[in-house]
């Protein structure tokens, strides 16, 4: 049977068990089974348990068998915040940033996101598919089996739709599962300079209804930031998106403390992301409203900003997710090892919390904790096998991926060996 695999003898089967996000102290519990086994049939997890017990019930000869002796097995990672479909690069801007020019200064000089908008407009759909495919392949090699992808490098009808259609196509042809987000309000395009309200109305009236009607995006996001979109503009846009059936996300309190965290709580958004400047009240409100707080440490690192207060968020009952934010500007990396290094060494998150943040809580950030993010019966057969016997090697081998094999929907899709 296609997509049927039996993995046995795992020194640690790190299940991350659960069908809901984990908040606060619960983030530390990985639900590990020693000498564990998993059975996947037809792409779906059929059984999870001790190897001895599983082999009594399931006939090895009926499956492709992987012996994970002396290796740890985990759920595939869920990268719940990326902008992986874009044309053109901004290496020049990166070197300016190294010299000390700030991200916002580059934006105010007419660079930044609108620069990538030009590159994305120029690129054909086929070119974007080829680029996207390469980026997904790289993510897969780090153990990512599901990814969220945003539009937002179009800022006009044709290009926003093109970006979303590229992801729709990639979802069909690539093993990775892609969950899509409409981020039409990512920046104010040049032709709307000084007319932000009108641009918001354009997005609401002209673009969003078609995105919803064609079912091109499950989520709607907005860059809620000083000099980009205000709290009021963000609220207006998100409420319209909700009316059209989209779930809500926000780029919130990244550079300036604007109150995006409070807005996310008020709107019961699925997630609020970045949060470098989130206030104490905003953090507590998000914990109460069960908004996933998605932290993107590689972006803070790349922008040379202070990291988000992950420790404080967990201690105050938030469900924290970690994601890459892969994009051509603020954070051109899809490196999962880098995220682990930063989260554990600089954000005072434990290894266990970081793993929860990239598995079950990442799944929750795309509203999919019921089908991905843990090794549980009934979920997709997405698992990774490490080169080492313990999950503790993940941050320990700094900046290097310890993922040996990636199984997506019961199929071996990456093998280092
Ligand atoms: O998540 N903050 C806004 N958007 C992206 C950056 C996009 C870009 O610079 O191209 C982010 O960091
Ligand atoms: Fe982002």
CATH class of the largest domain: Alpha Beta
Overall radius of gyration: 21 Å
Q: What would you give as the CATH superfamily of the largest domain?
A: Metal-dependent hydrolases
Q: How many angstroms does the end-to-end distance come to?
A: 24 Å
Percent range of helical residues: 25-40%
Total count of helical runs of at least 4 residues:
16
What does the model show?
- It is a single chain.
- This protein is 37% helix and 22% strand.
- It is globular.
- The protein has helices spanning 51-57, 91-98, 103-108, 113-122, 125-141, 157-173, 196-213, 231-243, 260-266, 280-288, 297-303, 310-315, 336-346, 351-358, 360-365, 393-396, and strands at 5-14, 32-41, 44-50, 64-67, 72-75, 77-79, 144-150, 177-185, 219-222, 247-252, 271-274, 292-295, 320-322, 383-386, 403-408, 411-415.
- The chain folds into two domains: 5-75 and 374-415, Urease, subunit C, domain 1 (Roll); 78-365, Metal-dependent hydrolases (TIM Barrel), CATH 3.20.20.
- The model has no long low-confidence stretch (mean pLDDT 97).
- The strands form two sheets. Strands 1, 2, 3, 4, 5, 14, 15 and 16 form an eight-stranded mixed sheet that branches. It has an eight-stranded parallel sheet with strand order 6-7-8-9-10-11-12-13.
- The chain has 417 residues and is an alpha/beta fold.
- Bound molecules: N-(iminomethyl)-L-glutamic acid and fe (iii) ion.
- Fe (iii) ion binds next to loops.
